[in-house]
């Protein structure tokens, strides 16, 4: 690799490896604080799953079955607030390709816009509502027709996100530690925090939250 290629790839690794997780956790925090009953259920799950903060480790949070509601909360946060809301483009080959029954000419950039897909009523019931229960193993009847296959926050195929497993561990571990240690309340100045512009990533403002040590 050339020096310029090393610099370019280093920047990409920093953004993809840290900014995306930070963005998702910001969104999850916002939606939890806007939905107190969901926050309470997740707090109860986390605080009953561990005896001490030291019990929150790679083994305990690495298994999604250990914290099923947290898994549902993070997944719903990825749906409502995907860290990369736009399309990650790929190019058709020299022979072109057929996508959804339509022939696409050779060397054409194609992609699926995540935000539009995840907010479409054709794919998800109540698409603009924060409903972690839709991702549980036994979801409410209303959400059993959701098209889960449309949800691909880490992309798919041979060029999907290589840091997916690390990202899941970071998200579970950080959120579990915050909920274990603190009670949280959204500050008034962040009530409309989710109303943001997006480019490749979100142009997100500061998220103001009051933290207090759990009783």
From TrEMBL:
<dbReference type="InterPro" id="IPR002401">
    <property type="entry name" value="Cyt_P450_E_grp-I"/>
</dbReference>
<dbReference type="GO" id="GO:0020037">
    <property type="term" value="F:heme binding"/>
</dbReference>
<protein>
    <recommendedName>
        <fullName>Cytochrome P450</fullName>
    </recommendedName>
</protein>
<comment type="similarity">
    <text>Belongs to the cytochrome P450 family.</text>
</comment>
<dbReference type="InterPro" id="IPR050121">
    <property type="entry name" value="Cytochrome_P450_monoxygenase"/>
</dbReference>
<keyword id="KW-0479">Metal-binding</keyword>
<keyword id="KW-0503">Monooxygenase</keyword>
<keyword id="KW-0349">Heme</keyword>
<dbReference type="InterPro" id="IPR017972">
    <property type="entry name" value="Cyt_P450_CS"/>
</dbReference>
<dbReference type="InterPro" id="IPR036396">
    <property type="entry name" value="Cyt_P450_sf"/>
</dbReference>
<dbReference type="GO" id="GO:0016705">
    <property type="term" value="F:oxidoreductase activity, acting on paired donors, with incorporation or reduction of molecular oxygen"/>
</dbReference>
<keyword id="KW-0560">Oxidoreductase</keyword>
<dbReference type="Pfam" id="PF00067">
    <property type="entry name" value="p450"/>
</dbReference>
<keyword id="KW-0408">Iron</keyword>
<dbReference type="InterPro" id="IPR001128">
    <property type="entry name" value="Cyt_P450"/>
</dbReference>
<dbReference type="GO" id="GO:0005506">
    <property type="term" value="F:iron ion binding"/>
</dbReference>
<dbReference type="GO" id="GO:0004497">
    <property type="term" value="F:monooxygenase activity"/>
</dbReference>
<feature type="binding site" description="axial binding residue">
    <location>
        <position position="161"/>
    </location>
    <ligand>
        <name>heme</name>
    </ligand>
</feature>
């Amino acid at each position: 690799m050339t020096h310029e290629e090393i610099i370019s790839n280093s920047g990409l690794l920093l953004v993809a490896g840290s900014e995306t997780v930070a963005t998702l956790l910001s969104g999850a925090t916002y939606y939890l604080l806007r939905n107190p009953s969901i926050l309470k259920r997740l707090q109860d799950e986390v605080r009953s799953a561990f005896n001490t903060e030291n019990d929150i480790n790679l083994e305990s949070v690495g298994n999604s079955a250990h914290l099923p509601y947290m898994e549902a909360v993070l997944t719903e946060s990825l749906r409502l607030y995907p860290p990369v809301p736009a399309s990650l483009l790929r190019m058709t080959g020299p022979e072109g390709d057929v996508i959804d029954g339509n022939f696409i000419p050779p060397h054409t950039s194609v992609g699926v816009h995540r935000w539009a897909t995840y907010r479409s009523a054709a794919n998800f019931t109540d698409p603009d509502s924060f409903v972690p229960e839709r991702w549980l193993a036994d979801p409410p009847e209303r959400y059993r027709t959701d098209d889960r296959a449309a949800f691909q926050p880490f992309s798919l195929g041979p060029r999907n996100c290589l840091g997916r497993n690390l990202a899941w561990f970071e998200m579970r571990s950080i959120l579990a530690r915050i909920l274990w240690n603190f009670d949280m309340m959204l500050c008034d100045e962040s009530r409309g925090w989710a109303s943001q512009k997006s480019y490749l990533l979100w142009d997100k403002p500061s998220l103001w939250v009051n933290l207090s040590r759990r009783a």
